[in-house]
Amino acid sequence: MDFSFTPQQERLREEIRAFLEKEVKEDSKVDFLYDRPYSPATWEFLGKLGEKGWLCPTWPGEWGGIGASALDNYVIQEEIAYAFAPAPFAVIGAMVVGPTLLAYGNEAQKNKYLPLIARGKVEFSMGYTEPQSGSDLASLSLRAEDKGDYYLLNGQKMFSTKADFAQYGWIAVRTDTTNPKKHKGISLLILDLKNTPGLTIRPIYNMSGYHSTEVFYDDVRIPKENLVGDLNQGFYIIGAALLFERAVTIRGFHKPLELLVDYVKNTRRRGRPLSEDPLIRRKLAELEMRFAVTGVIARRLCWMQQNKMFALNETAIAKLLSTELVYDLANAGLQIMGPYGELQSDSKYAALQGCFAHMYQESPHYKIAGGTSEIQRQIIATRGLGLPRG
Ligand SMILES: Cc1cc2nc3c(=O)[nH]c(=O)nc-3n(C[C@H](O)[C@H](O)[C@H](O)COP(=O)(O)OP(=O)(O)OC[C@H]3O[C@@H](n4cnc5c(N)ncnc54)[C@H](O)[C@@H]3O)c2cc1C
C-alpha cells in the first residue's frame, strides 16, 4: 500500500504553505484558538480561503469548491491547522452544514446557502443538544408545531456553540410527538439567527474561557421552506452530518508536540537535560507513535470517503484516537514542564506561552462535543465488532 502523497498533492501543499505564510495574521490565530466570536481578521482570512476554493475544496466549482479529492482536502486542512490559522474543519458551515446540504438540501437551499458558505461569508450554529438530550439525541423535545406555512417552536437548546454570532442555526426539532419510535419524529430546520423574533441566546463559559450558548425558543416562527430533507427524517440526516463533523486531521496538534520536544531538548532540571530523562523520552515516543497511527487512520478515512464507503466505525475510531491523543498530549506537557507549564500566557514565566495550560483546560471538551468518547466506543463495539447494543 502506498501512503505517499502524489506530486500534485505536494505542489498543492507548497502552494497553500506560501499562501498561509502571507495571509495568517497573529490576531486571527489567537481569536480562533480560543473560539471567541470570529474577529474581522478571521472573517477576512476565511474570505480569502473561499476565494481560492479552499474553504470547501471538495465541492464542485459551481458551488465554490475546486472539485478536490478527500485526500487533497486532507492536505489543505493539515497545512491550515498546522499554521494555527482559522481552520475550515472548525467552521460549522463549511464542515457540517454545506456537505449535508449538498446531499439532502433542495435546489433553493443550495443556491441560497452554499455560495455564502464556500466564500466564507456566513457561519452556522448547530442546535442538537438539549438540557435532557445529548448522547440520546432521539429523545429531544424542542417542539415544532405545523402552523400551515411555518413551524412554531417552543423549548430550549443547550451548548449551541456560536449561536451568539453565527448568522444561521441548524437545528433538530420534534415534528411528530405521536410516533413511539422517537427518532422518527425529528426534523432538521435552518434558522435565521439574526432576524427571528422569540430567541434568547445566553453565553455559557467553560473552564478554559471557551464559550458556548443556551438558546431559548419562545413562539419562534420558521418558514416551512427551511425544512432540510423530508419531514421526520432529520435523525438520519443528522447521522450523516455527524460523520462530517467527526472527520479529523491531527497535524495541527503535532505542532505543540514539536514545541514540547524543543522544550525538552533545551531545558535542564536539577543539573540534567530533560532530554536524558528516560520517562520523558518514553512519554514523547509514545505520543509520536500515536500521532503516526492516527494520521494513517485519518488518511484511510479520506480514502473511504473518496470511494463513497460508509465509514461509521472508522469515523468513530478516528474521532476517539485523535481527541484522546490531544487530551493525553496536554497532560504529558504539564507533567513534563511542571508548574511553569501551568502558568497562563500573560505570565513572563509561562512555559511555551501557556499553550499547554490552555490545551489542558480545553481538550476535555474535544472528547465530549460531537459525541462523547463513550459513544464512539459504543459505535465501535456495535458497528465494528457486531456486539449487541448495551
Ligand atoms: C464545548 C462543547 C461544545 C458543544 N457544542 C455543541 C454544539 O455546537 N451543538 C450541539 O448540539 N451540542 C454541542 N455540545 C454538546 C455535546 O454534543 C453533548 O454534550 C454530548 O453529546 C453529550 O451529551 P450530554 O451533555 O447530554 O451528556 P450525556 O449524554 O448525558 O452523557 C453524560 C455522560 O454519560 C455518558 N453516556 C451517555 N450515554 C452513554 C451510553 N449509551 N453508553 C456509555 N456512556 C454513555 C457520556 O459519555 C457522558 O460521559 C457541545 C458540548 C461541549 C462540551
Describe the structure.
This protein has 390 residues and is an alpha+beta fold. The protein has three domains: 7-90, Butyryl-Coa Dehydrogenase, subunit A, domain 1, CATH 1.10.540.10; 126-237, Butyryl-CoA Dehydrogenase, subunit A, domain 2 (Beta Barrel), CATH 2.40.110; 247-384, Up-down Bundle (Butyryl-CoA Dehydrogenase, subunit A, domain 3), CATH 1.20.140. Helices cover 47% and strands 14% of the residues. It is built from 13 helices and ten strands. The chain has helices spanning 7-23, 26-33, 40-52, 70-82, 92-104, 107-118, 234-246, 254-266, 278-306, 312-337, 339-342, 355-366, 373-384, and strands at 124-127, 143-146, 150-157, 168-174, 186-192, 199-205, 211-223, 227-228, 268-269, 272-273. Strands 1-4-5-8 form a four-stranded mixed sheet. A hairpin with a 5-residue loop joins β6 and β7 (211-223). The longest helix is centred in the C-terminal third of the chain and has 29 residues, at 278-306. The two termini are 36 Å apart. The mean pLDDT is 93. Bound molecules: flavin-adenine dinucleotide (FAD). Residues 126-129, 134-135, 159-161, 206, 212, 365, 368-369, 371-372, 374-375, 378 line the site of flavin-adenine dinucleotide (FAD).
